[in-house]
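For practice. Any example?
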Amino acid sequence: MNRSVRRVIFLVALWLGTAGVLRAAEILTNDGQRFKGKVLEETATDYLMEIENGVQVRIGKDQVAHFDAAEAPKESLKTYPVLGLTYGTPSVVNLVAGYYLDDFGLKLSGAYWSGVHGLQADLSWKAVDNEKVLVDFSLVGGTVHTAGGSNGFSLWSSGDWSGTDWTYGGLGFDVNYGGFFFEVMGVTGNFPNPVAFPYQIGLEERFN
């Protein structure tokens, strides 16, 4: 995965993470003016609002006749389990199970198939966690064993690498939006490439 693709993934995830912070709202002032846009900041005395073309206005609360805001995403439970099914590293089709605490989580993913089997552990720090989206940064480590053939592992290496027995470790970044899950990693290990960028994509249910 090249640098530009990884940058797009990061920006999308950042947008998803901050989408719940910016509240869509409509404000009607005492003199009859109507403002529609996003509330960027709220203090004890006023609102900072972004309206059309990125213009920002600050409206005192004593000037507001009516304030109508879209409901912000609810905070999720702080602790909850996760279960899922993904495609990618370490065993092409992976079962996922884990548990999240207040700020951290631990997940295991992998499976045992005739041609390939593996197991990966993610120790994750929650960057964003609300009702709709979870964004994690993780320490990852795992093992992959192949009996022969590529079995979909072109993301690791090309050529003949039957009978491999690899271990790897590195950093991961993942986004879970409404149960749709994507993770990309930068890892190193005892495989031919000095650095690899494996991934997982699939469904991961958060019981929050």
About this structure: The longest strand covers residues 116-129. Residues 3-19 form the longest helix (17 residues). Helices lie at 3-19.
